[in-house]
TrEMBL record:
Disordered, as annotated region: 1-36
Ranges where the ATPase of the ABC class C-terminal domain occurs: 191-465
Protein name: ATPase
Domain ATPase of the ABC class N-terminal: 37-181
Pfam families xref list: ABC_ATPase (PF09818), ABC_N (PF20446), MRB1590_C (PF21117)
InterPro entries, per the entry: ABC_ATPase_C, ABC_ATPase_put, ABC_N, MRB1590-like_C, P-loop_NTPase
Biased composition (Basic and acidic residues): 14-36
Coiled-coil segments: none
Length: 586
């Protein structure tokens, strides 16, 4: 497992120095500040009290690079200290093709961070590196050809005394060795180029989807199943049935590096994935969920892509819902609640799923991914016998099966749905793919023969919400508090946000990134000026497009990675303090 440490961090409001006021008794070291001086100072500190490390803060000129000691832990058990390293363009010497385009820049930075991670194995220095996905992260950035790295270090101590010898070997030997290992001349250049080529092909493939009328593409030969429930690495080759598209749904795309690739094209509209239990349906849907991200070479899903705005929809009993319009799905609740303006501190399976759909559309999704394994059955289907027993005004729910066609026809929203347990969706599906022994077959014609007439309901777009900016507050006791617990919880100020069911939040750093994005939305006034949530997300996306992931950080001392707007919105929607000021109906 790489990079799954820390993630939390604190920033003291308004002060440029993340340590707060700094201790008057530990002034920064003045005068010549190069690596030789750093060694001298460390030796001089040997055996002193741990707090003296603080005097090392600031920049150190190592000749080939600059080390900045940004934040020093106050004792050996506190979260690691934070440092950054800037390696100038002429030292790291990346060729233009490795970084001039935004896509290759992101890929090469990611490649370098992974290499740094490997080189630092066993060190007290650590760098946050990705796993199967290539996601822009704060730990490694290329700026005008310079390489900027952000790392953590557990500054070593013997009890509460400074262990200067170990500190010296980490900062003055391992760190320069790591920088050396990242020079272009020292890299496996073929591998580095192939890494960027792979990412560039994936991005090109995803960009082709709209022109081809597709919402997703799965190349022949892709490896979808994962090593295990707790490892996202590919399943061992010997066990895998590689993906092969059925002829009738085959699409081909020419990619910049790999040339022509062929595979399953999932068209816009409604696609049903059927098949017996254990035949690979959920595995395919999981791959589509992840297809909004780029994958590393060898992952098996490098050429599995989905529209970037695809959102996984599921039931999520118990979540909070704040003034969300779920009236297309839910009406006439026994409580008499207005479902056009629905709120609950403890939503049911069906209302939580309805809210998840409305909120995803509000945030701008045009592709929904649904798996029967994680849905509320009563929101998905209602068969004729149940209709005969419980009918008309007694049933508050309009099932998704009656809305999925109007969603596409009237709102341009496509759905890919796994449903092995009911044939109701035969009536509404444009395409039906059956998985049999992990192989996909086009069974659209047979399903059509088994289908019947179905009268659609009408779907109206959910209201846009205007958020009360003050209800989104990252501060606890006067300072920013953002912390993550595993992949489950984001602590945002005084509140815990449950993010465990956000299937497309895939990297620990993204969870912190979501917290930073929420902070930015509220503290920079993006949620103000009567902007709707969707407009605020547009404004945020624009900043991220211009300034990259670093736009989120602003003095934040921990690691973080770039989340999508859909997960940012989803976390906001799960924030228990969230207040919506107004609804705007279109
Ligand atoms: P379903 O949703 O149809 O019940 P799953 O997608 O959960 O089935 O897959 C069942 C099992 O089969 C999982 O353990 C999964 O890892 C494995 N599996 C899925 N696709 C493949 C494949 N192409 N080759 C080998 N094993 C696979
Ligand atoms: Mg399943």
């Amino acid at each position: 497992m790489s990079g799954r440490y820390g993630g939390g961090g604190r920033r003291h409001g308004g002060r440029p120095d993340h340590q707060g006021r700094g201790r008057p008794e530990e002034p920064e070291i003045r005068g010549r500040r190069d690596d030789a001086r750093l060694r001298e100072e460390l030796r001089r500190m040997s055996g002193s009290s741990y707090g003296r490390y603080k005097s090392l803060r600031g920049d150190w000129d190592f000749g080939d690079f600059t080390l900045s000691i940004d934040r020093v832990q106050s004792d050996p058990f506190a979260p690691p200290s934070r440092i950054s390293v800037r390696v100038p363009a002429d030292v790291v010497a990346l060729p233009d093709h490795a970084w001039r385009s935004p896509v290759r820049r992101r890929a090469t930075a990611d490649y370098l961070v992974r290499r740094a991670y490997r080189v630092l194995k066993g060190a007290k220095l650590r760098i946050d590196a990705g796993e199967q996905e290539v996601i822009e992260r704060a730990s490694g950035q290329i700026e005008q050809g310079d390489l900027l790295l952000r790392l953590g270090i557990e500054l070593p101590g013997h009890g509460r005394k400074i262990d200067a010898r170990t500190a010296e070997s980490e900062l003055c030997e391992r760190l320069p060795d790591m920088v050396d290992a990242l020079r272009w001349d020292e890299l496996d250049q073929d591998e580095a180029v192939a890494f960027a080529d792979t990412v560039e092909d994936t991005v090109a493939l995803r960009a082709e989807l709209p022109a081809l009328g597709l919402v997703a593409f799965v190349a022949d030969g892709s490896v979808l199943p994962r090593h295990s429930g707790v490892s996202d690495r590919p399943m061992d080759d010997s066990k895998v049935v590689p993906f092969t598209a059925p002829e009738s749904l085959r699409a081909s795309v020419k990619l910049p590096h790999r040339g022509e690739v062929s595979g399953l094209g999932i068209p816009e509209g409604i696609t049903l994935i059927v098949g017996g239990g254990f035949h690979g349906k959920s595995t395919l849907l999981h791959a589509l969920e992840r297809g909004v991200y780029d994958h590393i070479p060898g992952d098996g899903r490098e050429l599995v892509v989905t529209r970037p705005d695809a959102v996984k929809i599921r039931a999520e009993e118990g979540r909070r819902v704040e003034r969300t319009d779920v009236s297309a799905f839910v009406r006439n609740l026994p409580t008499g609640a207005d479902t056009g303006d629905f709120r609950s501190d403890n939503a049911s399976g069906s209302t939580s799923q309805a809210a998840n759909i409305s909120e995803s559309l509000e945030a701008g999704s045009t592709t929904l991914l649904v798996d029967e394994d994680t849905t509320a059955t009563n929101l998905m289907i209602r068969d004729t016998r149940m209709q005969a027993l419980v009918h008309g005004d007694r049933e508050p729910l309009t099932p998704f099966v009656d809305l999925v066609r109007p969603l596409h026809r009237d709102h341009g929203v496509s759905t890919v749905l796994v449903m092995g347990g009911s044939g109701d969706y035969f009536d509404v599906a444009d395409n039906v793919v059956m998985l049999d022994g992990y192989r996909p077959y086009d069974v659209t014609e047979r399903a059509r023969e088994l289908s019947s007439e179905r009268t659609d309901a009408t779907y109206h777009a959910p209201a846009h919400r205007v958020v009360d900016q003050r209800s989104v507050n990252a501060n606890a006791r006067g300072r920013t508090k953002l912390k993550r617990r595993d992949m489950d919880v984001l602590t945002f100020g005084e509140t815990d946000i449950d993010v465990r069911h956000l299937a497309q939040l895939v990297d620990p750093g993204q969870i912190v990134g979501v917290g930073l994005a929420l902070r930015l939305l509220s503290e920079d006034g993006l949620l103000g000026d009567d902007r709707s949530l969707a407009e605020a997300l547009d404004a945020l996306d624009e900043r991220l497009a211009n300034d990259g992931v670093a736009a989120l950080g602003r003095g934040f001392a921990g690691d973080y990675a770039l989340p999508r707007r859909f997960e940012i919105a989803a976390a906001l929607n799960r924030l228990r303090t969230l207040r919506v000021r107004a609804l705007r109906r279109t």
